[in-house]
Amino acid sequence: MARVVLSSVLDPPMLERAVCTDSATRLHEVEPPSVRPPRAVVAIPARDEEERIEACLSALLAQRREHGAADVGLVLLANNCRDATVRRARRLLASSDMPHRVMSVSLPSERASAGAARALALDIASLWIGRGEGALLTTDADSRVGPDWIVRNLAGLRGACGAVAGRFVFDPAEAALLPRHLARRRRVEAAYEAALLALAARLDPQPHDPWPNHWTDSGASFALTLSAYRRIGGLPAVACGEDRALAAALARHDIPIRHDPDIVVTTSARLEGRAARGCAATLRERCDDRATPGDERLEALPVALRRMGLRARLRRAFGTGFRPGEWERRLGLRAGTLSGAASLRFGEAWARAEALSPLLRPLPLRPEEMEHHLAAAHRLLARLPAPGEALSSDQQV
């Protein structure tokens, strides 16, 4: 197949969702699939990944055979590749029985982003499935999914959840080359994340996402039902951070996401990546500047506890009677800010509260501050009952 040039259809200053859908439709029609539609499709964006694409695809092919995930197809969207990514992918897939579509596109430089490529790949995958029930899965071309990745994701989507988020670990050989201070920082951050999640499971439990869980929303491992994808209007049109934007859109629509700690992919720990402001850029920044603040969700413990408490109370208020004036006072908002919020979904109202309330402004911690807050979180956890058990009057936070 010849490379498809999309410069004319992707000309707007921002990659608008409607334009992206139109682009995917054109690509879908340029090279219609020759096999019947699968009920689940893995969508992978790739750019100059000739050294890693075969390992990525081999991991998918192996579990498809071993775990009976037969009705699963693949869309590989090669975005402005200048190397042998496409050739190597086609050669490997040609010897398999996996339904696949390898598509090469040329986006203008200002639009050649990870977000645009993943959106096109997912849209093409959704068009391939067509009508009825189906599932969309996505990973990265520099990642290797776990041996049961497909079946675990599909099992997670059969319940109440419209989406399943996995987590990633760095390739051990590459991670060993990172500075020691970064390895230590990552251990402390992982411990603090686990502590905050354990607190949230006690203070604002969510039955669809029980503890133990995680909070990674990464394109390296994400799955959602076709109906959920269409309900939110597709992948949000952002150049980077499209994975978190996707999770946020699902949350605004009250579509439950399970963050399954047993779904794991291995991804590159390289410092020179393909996506602007992606994982490689974050690693490089933290190598160069030890004082760089962490993820904004790794915030000061008092702020995190305030966030959990307000979220739990607002969730209950939406079930028993939401009074905008009362919540404007609680959140430190001007009168009238939440007028009409009672007609919103809970997820929409919470997103508005987080965006506007000065009480919910994130305060990300610097590395040297985090161990103090981690110790305080552990002390608090020692006082609280296990998840699912009621707090006594003297255990209120």
From TrEMBL:
Domain of life, source organism: Bacteria
Pfam families reported in the protein's UniProt record: Glycos_transf_2
Keyword Glycosyltransferase in annotation: yes
UniProt-annotated location(s): Cell membrane
A Gene Ontology term for the protein's cellular component: plasma membrane
Principal location class: membrane
EC number in record: 2.4.-.-
Occurrences of domain Glycosyltransferase 2-like (ranges): 42-174
Gene3D superfamilies registered for this protein in UniProt: Spore Coat Polysaccharide Biosynthesis Protein SpsA, Chain A (3.90.550.10)
Signal peptide per UniProt: none
Name the UniProt record assigns to this protein: Glycosyltransferase
MF GO annotations: glycosyltransferase activity
Assigned keywords, A-Z: Cell membrane, Glycosyltransferase, Membrane, Transferase
